[in-house]
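User: I'm writing a short report section on ligand binding and want a predicted complex to refer to. Could you take this sequence and heme C and write out the structure as tokens? A short remark afterwards would be nice.
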Amino acid sequence: MKKLLLVFLFAIAPLATFAAEEGPKLDHVNIDLNDKPSLQRGARIFVNYCLSCHSASYMRYNRMGHDLGISDELVKENLLFAADKVGDLMKAVMPEEDAKDWFGVAPPDLSDEARYRGPEWIYTYMRSFYRDPKAVSGWNNLVFPHVAMPFVLYDWQGEQRPVYKTVKTVDHIEIGGKMVNKETNSEVFDHFELAKPGTMSPQDYDKAMRDLTNFMVYLAEPAKLVRYRIGAYVLIFLVVFLVFAYLLKKEYWKDVH
Ligand code: HEC
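Assistant: Sure. The structure tokens for the complex follow:
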């Protein structure tokens, strides 16, 4: 029994360390891969504002168009800024070496980002840029401190300023053989305030970031949409099959009773 308990404790140990990892609170985002209009709006933002630096090099334009219900003609007219042909892979406009020279780090490929960081992280990251005069790009980020990415959606969101609150912690320490309470004040992030409004209201900006995150979740696992479709056909087939199976059962048992 003791051994079993030990095995159990070892098994859950990684969970405990994971839970202990402190970081800023991530905001919930409602991901819905069946919401085609949201995915289409997200694709538009991604192609217009992110592909200049980041690639999504596992994805082809026409595959994306096909999955999201956008015709090749519409893809050509509205989404093909960084490539010539609809069959091309979604590669960044900026050559990687140049980007590395400018930003110090190459912007990573975002094909798998939603699986690597999770949708909540991306959604919070895109809404957590704030002005920081000390940063090289002039921007810092709450969930990615000292990020090298300039805040490219600044026009939309405007300029945020972090508001901190003072938190008092009391430590029990020993001085000269006596236990005393030592109080320390620390500043922790509380919320953002909008120092300069952007062209979008905060609600509309959140909605746009939800669409973008939704699209990036699709990007990380495009086959999910195909699985959903096949899943629906399988369920329809099972319902139809049930009717026939029931009729067949009735036919077989008719003579028994
Ligand atoms: C001007 C170039 C540029 C543009 C445009 C840009 N990024 Fe970035 N991005 C960067 C760079 C550089 C980094 C690497 C930051 C670092 O490692 O410090 C980065 C990092 C990121 C990361 C974090 C990657 C990680 O390490 O997990 C995400 C997510 C991201 N970008 C999303 C976006 C999205 C979404 C857009 C479009 C709205 C966008 N970026 C537009 C340059 C850019």
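A remark for your report: Residues 49-50, 52-54, 103, 105, 107-108, 110, 113, 117, 122, 125, 147-150, 152-153, 212 surround heme C (CB under 6 Å). The mean pLDDT is 90.
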